[in-house]
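Notes, p. 3: input format for complexes.
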Amino acid sequence: SAFALTEVHAGSDPANMSTTATPAEDGASFILNGEKLWCTNGTRAELLVVMARTPSKIVAGKEKRQITAFIVEVGWPGVEIVRRCHFMGLRALENGVIRFTNVRVPRENILWKEGSGLKLALITLNTGRLTLPSSVTGCAKAALEICRRWSNERVQWGVPIGRHEAIAEKLARMASTTFAMEAISELCAALVDRGGYDIRLEAAVAKMFNSEAGWKIVDEALQIRGGRGYETASSLAARGEEPIPLERMMRDYRINLIFEGSSEIMRLFLAREAVDRHLQLAGDLVNPKASAGAKLRALVKAGLFYAAWYPRLWFGAGYLPSFGEFGVLSTHLRYVERSSRRLARMLLYAMMRHGARLERKQMTLFRFVEIGAELFAMTSACVRARMLQKRGEQGEQAAALADHFCRLAHRRVEASFRAIFHNDDDATYRLSQRVTSGEFTWLEQGIVGLNHALREVAHTIPEVPEREPVHS
Ligand SMILES: Cc1cc2nc3c(=O)[nH]c(=O)nc-3n(C[C@H](O)[C@H](O)[C@H](O)COP(=O)(O)OP(=O)(O)OC[C@H]3O[C@@H](n4cnc5c(N)ncnc54)[C@H](O)[C@@H]3O)c2cc1C
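Output follows (472 residues plus flavin-adenine dinucleotide):
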């Protein structure tokens, strides 16, 4: 089967989709029209889950757009597999563009109920956001193995390259980050297996953190392999060297930061979760357009809440000798505990400073998300190390890996905290808008005009031949 959500004009914002399912006169079916992009498995699937816009509803006097999920059979009249798409990596992926022209879909083929499509899509994505962190951990492990061997084997300047500090540093970071990545994906999986837990936030953190950490690992692995990292496996084999496919790993890996919710969308989702509660409580207080009455009501509501909430953010176990059972890792857990409260305080200060504008201050918001993700990763690493130690499995090594990961994460967290109120965000945003307005196009001159030349010949580039014809 395949999942058809994305369209040419609806990527990260699927609510913007234009595929429609209009109720037919018989009342027993819908007529589906539209085109879906990048459907994985779409060129092979027999069944499709298609998201389409159904007639809007009026709720409390306002129009509410409805997106509904339909089960569609590829063999039905009007379903056309237009083409197979080809990518930088994942060359074996059967992924295509699918067009629907007046396809009659029986009403009973609605998944869940009319209007619940987006919710269903988000739940489906949750699964991907749990499997992906685990698969990218697999990539990190493979990269680590490649680099461990190469750092011992490859001798330059008279010593194995793993002894040179620049490579040694990368190796240590790769190992401890791989440990943290595994800790995160295992912890999330355990939470899901236990049941009765809303995993959306952890799944989003795991997807974002692991995909990005893994990308850095693959990048550094390529660097450690030097020119051989950039050479294809078949070329290496032809020269009689071990065909280690790092360049392919890099091509295949990159999409992990884009699909199943891009890194930016994960940050937005997490930031909104963090800020929404405050905006609901005190939004009117900091909204210059709110009436005096609304401000007063918000003041009472927020006052009651923050009077109990805020003091708790100053006192906690993080200042006391605690988490003793974690041994050398206890200092890290105390830091996590203190920093979680500091994070909540800073969020409140940021809201007071930026008011309702905070929702649009992505550079600031994303720092909060990064701190939260690092703290989650630190906790996961410490807990996993402790679990392995309790089981009598690699206890000391696991603690060493977790300790190293936490030391580095601690520095990143401190840097992010500092940058919340000391940054160049406004200057950066202003400059970016001058870039998009075309003010600096002169900077793009002085090259042979690759973009222009490519556009000129684009229509003459032959399509990659199909191995077998796609059905239509
Ligand atoms: C190999 C592959 C397989 C895929 N498989 C499927 C599939 O099976 N089914 C399916 O339906 N789709 C599939 N997709 C689509 C995939 O989910 C989308 O690529 C993804 O949702 C992003 O959409 P987009 O590419 O249109 O990027 P856009 O939404 O156009 O985003 C472009 C950039 O802007 C950023 N951005 C967007 N909005 C914001 C914002 N509000 N704030 C900050 N930054 C923002 C994004 O993070 C991204 O960096 C696949 C794509 C690929 C490449």
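The chain has a mean pLDDT of 92.
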